[in-house]
Amino acid sequence: MEKNAVNTKEALKFEERLRRMEDAIALREPDRIPIAPFFSSVIQRLYNSSYKDRYYNFPKAGNAFLQFYKDYPLCDAHYCTGFTSGRSNELAGSTMIDWPGRPGTVVSDYSSHQVLEHEYLLPGEYPELLNDFTGFMIRKYIPRAYSNFKCFENIKFTPTVVLNTGLLSPLYSPEVLQAFDVLSQIGKLDAEATSALLEYSGKLTDIGMPAMICGVSEVPYDILGDFFRGTVGIMEDLLEYEDYIKAACEMFADQQIAALQYLRTAPIPVKRIMFPMHKGMDGFMSPAQYEKLYWNPFKKVIEALVAMGVTPYLYTEGHYDSRLEQLADVPKGKVLYHFESVDMKEAKRILGNTACIMGNLPIAMLEFGKKDQVVDTCKDLIDTCAPGGGYIFDLSGSLENTKLENLEAMFKTLETYR
Question: SS3 sequence, 302-337?
C-alpha cells in the first residue's frame, strides 16, 4: 500500500475516533462505546520502560506509549500527557514532590511522583497572597518550593527617585545572577520535555490516535489546598479562615480563565482540559462549604471554558455520591465526568441527561482480582451506563500495575459485549 493511502487510512481512523468521543460527550449515542482508559506506568512496564523514563529518557517512555496504542487499537484516545525533566527539578531543588530517578529517592522507578505536602502559605499570610500575589510568589513561594532559589527572598524594591539603573540592583546581586543562570538551564531542559511531548503526540496522531486532553488544570480550591496550604492546613482553615479561602479561590478562578484564553483560537483538534478534583470528595467538607468554596468558583471556570468551545473534563477522586446533584449544574452536553468511586446507577440517573460519565472500574481489581471479576464488572458498567449514550469506558484511576490476563479480558469484553 502506498504511503499516501496509509496516511489517509490513519487520518480516517483519527476522525472516526474523535467523532465517537465527541458524540458521547454531546450525549449522542455513538457507533460503539468509546474507550479511553487512563493507563499510566503500566504502559512502561509492558514495554520494557518505567515511569522514571518519563523524567530521564523521553524516547524510551514515548516509544512505550506508541507501541501500546498500536497493540491496543480499540482505544479511542491516548493519555500521553507529557514528560517532566527530572534534571530541571534537581536544578531547582523542587521540594513539593519526590519522583522516580531523583538522587536519593525512595520512589520506585515504576511509580509516579509522590507529593510531599508543605505549608508554602502560612495562615497569617493570606492578606499578602491576596493583595500582592506576584510579590508573594517571588519572595515567599518560590524560595520555599524550590530550595535552590532562596535568594529570591531578597528581591525587594524600595520606592525612591529613579534617575539611573540603581532600582535594578536587587536583580543583579551575585546570588540572583547565579539563579538566573540556573533558570536558563531549567528553561532549556523543560523545552526538551515539551518538544518530546509534541513529537510523540504527533506520532500518535500519525497512527490515528487522538489525544484525550490538551492540557491539565486544577480546581481553584485544590490549587490552594494542594500547592499552598496542604491538606491538613486547608481543612483547619475551613474552621478559621473561610472568607480568605473564598477570596483566594475567586482569585485563582479569574487567573485560570485569563490563562486559558489561548484555547479560543488554538488550532488543535482536541480541546479538553482535565481537572483532577482532589479535596472536595465526600466527607472533606460540608455540602454548604462545597457549594460556596469548591463548586461556585470552579463553576466560573467551567462556564468560561464552555463559552470558548472547550470541554472541561472533571476527574473526581474518592467517593463522590453526595456531590452528584451539584455536578448536574453545568451546561448540557458540554462537560465530561470521570468517577473513581460512586454508585454509577445514581450517576447515570442524575447526570445522564446533562453530562457524559466514565470511570468506576476499580484499578485494584485489575491488579489483584480475577479475570471473571473484570469481565463481569465491565459488563455491568456497560449495561448501566451505555444505554442512550453519554458514556465513555474508563478505569477508576491511574493504573500503574495490572495482571496482563486481566488487561486482555477487559479489552476482549469491550470488543465483544454490546
Answer: HHHHHHCCCEEEEEECCECHHHHHHHCCCCCCCCEE
How far apart CA 334 and CA 262 sit, in angstroms, is 19
Contacts 24+ apart (CB under 8 A), 220-223: 220/248, 220/249, 220/250, 220/252, 220/253, 220/256, 220/297, 220/298, 220/301, 221/245, 221/249, 221/279, 221/280, 221/293, 221/294, 221/297, 221/298, 222/276, 222/277, 222/278, 222/279, 222/280, 223/249, 223/252
Residue-level pLDDT at 157: 87
- Please name the residue that has the C-alpha cell 461556585: 296
pLDDT given at position 1: 46
- Burial, 267: exposed, middle or buried (Cβ in 10 Å; 0-12, 13-18, 19+)? exposed
pTM here is 0.94
Write down the pLDDT at residue 158: 82
| Number of residues that this document lists for the chain | 418
CA dihedral defined by 403, 408, 409, 413, rounded to 10 degrees?
Answer: 150
